[in-house]
Amino acid sequence: MHTQRTQHRRFGGYGGYGRRTATALAALSLTGALALTGCSAAGSGAKSDESVADAAAPRQREAAGKGPAAASAATGAPAPSSDKDQPQAPARTQIIRTATLGVETADAQKAAAGARTAAEGAGGYVGNETTGRGHDGAMTSTVTLRVPAGRFDAVLAAMEGSGKLLERKVEAQDVTQKVADVDSRVTSQRASVGRVRELMEKASSLGEVVTLEAELSKRQADLESLLAQQTALKDQTSLGTITLTFSEPAKEAAKEPKKADPGFTDALAGGWKAFAAVVLYLLMALAAASPFLLAGAFLLFCFRQFRTWRPAKPKPGAPERRLPAQAGPVGQTPRPPAGSPAGPADPADPAAPAADVRD
Length: 359
Fold this sequence. Notes:
Order of helices and strands: HHHHEHEEHEHHEH
Largest sheet: 5 strands, mixed
Radius of gyration: 61 Å
Structural class: alpha+beta
Helix content: 40-55%
Strand content: 5-15%
Low-confidence stretches: 1-22, 30-84, 345-352, 354-359
Distance between the termini: 172 Å
Shape: elongated
Mean pLDDT: 72
């Protein structure tokens, strides 16, 4: 019995407070989620309010004797005001202005320097600058200026008059609603982070501290993201952007002097050039064909030598070639030379052989 009383003294006081802390954390999560989303309040407002009221009931009973302010703090809702709600002043119009200009000038670098001076004189700065020379030799400079919104039109007009205007494009984007929404979410998120920190100071157990730290890290990250969006919108609305492109006119090619009408000398020179060209082409053709000509000449020479060394064959039906007879003594019939075929036999010569009759 004594042990049970001791345990009750040890954990009884923290048990009730722990339950109240968990209940308050649940109410805080629901309230923060409703504040961040900021939408569909009419459709789901009744159920959400009922859940928050049920979750915050223990704290409301605890703060019942402390007045309306304590009860409002227990539920996480703003304290009731005795004054009537005053209509909020309309938000200032927030506009993002951008412009693009194309200007032709005799000196692109000088025009770019004038643009830098104009931006700095208006309280702005040069965001980016690029200068280069094209294939035709003309210079081109691209300059991006950031100037205050109040001096945007003046700087734009000054840049338009710096040369021959080739292109002009101006845009204006109204972001008033977006800026107001981001500002409202930043305010609500800051309040949500502050409430989680207050609960961490009152946490009594390790589990509550771990849960609250995780919730605080998540809400702190959301707050930093909203602050980055707020900063970017503020920069875009407070400073306008002007992109300038200065280009030099293309350089004309030098004109060739007009040639005089051709005369006799020109015609003679032209004919000689044509003749020389023809001779050159013929020599080139001869040089290209010379290996083939030499090979043909060599083959022809070999063929002629072969015909000379080979004895000629008598043609069929051709008359036989006879050699002239040798002269003998007077009164004697001439005889054919030795080795030659015998001629017709002399009928008076009994020793003469019979004549060989050939076809």
